[in-house]
Amino acid sequence: MLRDLFSCGACGNQADCALLDAGAEFPHKSGLQIRQEEFRAGAPIAIDGDCLLAVKSGVVKSVCRDAHGHNRVVAFSFPGDLFGLEAMTDAAHAELLHGASVSMTTVCRMRLSPDAARRASPHFCARLSAELAARIRDNFQHRQIVAAAAPVRMAHWLMQCLRAMQGQSAAQGAILPGMARADIASYLHLRVETVSRVLSEFRKNGWVRGPLHRLEVRDAEALALLARGMGGHPDPARPQQVMHG
Question: Which domains does the chain have, with CATH numbers?
Fold first, then answer.
């Protein structure tokens, strides 16, 4: 079903929606349209250069083929995030693929008519430039994270999920999205067995609780401390140096 951009009033993501913000200054009914699409876990999401896409619910994974010919998850996009921006640039050679990481992931697709694109406001162009710059920063940070010890990587991932769900204030008792263990392992450059082992250690420490598909964060402060590389030992009271790349 197609909807006008400015009929998004019932959506709970308005305050954090990069798509709504990017298109806020387009003239009303200037050829701008929104369509919601729903995907099951693992389903591919088509990308084209005349659309902007944002996650409404669930999680989208971005996958790239590495030097060894293996597909690896390189990014997760959470509700309110734009993704697939490489299709609007000359970076198509990056061969990024996008798909749902969580069942019933909903994506909002904003199609730009040629006329609307020509009248793109400075705000719109600046917003896209900022998004692309953020991806460069995130890619650099991710290269550092995957050089750290496995518990540090897992703590970074958990804190990333919390920030995406709740802004900058990571609260206790948050239930994380039920992403596949293989996706998490691919993103963190870990074995699936290592993901399971580290999460078991975190459960023993009381930092998280429950199965992966309903993982509950119980001690965000301890995880944040570990994510900063200040505590390599399961007991945060006994800090240990952790190598960063």
Answer: 2-124 (2.60.120.10), 146-227 (1.10.10.10)
